[in-house]
Design goal:
It is a single chain. By secondary structure, this protein is an alpha+beta fold. The chain has one domain: ADP-ribosylation fold, CATH 3.20.170.20. β5 and β6 form a beta hairpin. The longest helix has 10 residues. It is globular.
């Protein structure tokens, strides 16, 4: 795990199906997917990691949303930890308040069922 001084700044992202985000917004917090709950943290991605995450975990899925968060708003519950291929990924420990979302964007799917991030992301 990186120390707090090594954490990249900027925007981090969560990929969700629309129904999961709608449910989270009604309660005010997102508690995580089955994978998040199993691992004990909410999996997030940096912008550079989005395409790989989408292709690996969301192939063929519809109604996906890309939720962006300012990493500075997430405070000490955001940790950058070694994961896939030894690369550091953002992980959020605890329920994620939906009010902290900077933007909510639809994710398009190409003709082969591969989702891709919006071209005009922040």
């Amino acid at each position: 795990m990186r120390s707090s001084g090594d954490e990249p700044s900027g925007v981090v992202y969560k990929i969700l199906v629309r129904d999961a985000w709608d449910d989270a917004c009604r309660s005010g917090v997102y508690h995580g997917s089955a994978d998040d709950l199993r691992d004990g943290f909410i999996h997030l991605s940096s912008r550079a990691q989005l395409s790989g995450t989408l292709a690996k975990y969301f192939l063929g899925q519809n109604n996906l949303l890309l939720i962006s968060f300012d990493s500075s708003d997430l405070g000490g519950k955001l940790k950058w930890e070694a994961s896939r291929g030894g690369k550091f990924f953002p992980h959020f420990y605890g329920p994620l308040p939906t009010i902290l979302a900077r933007s909510v964007r639809e994710i398009a799917i190409d003709s082969e069922g591969i989702p891709f991030p919006p071209g005009d992301m922040e």
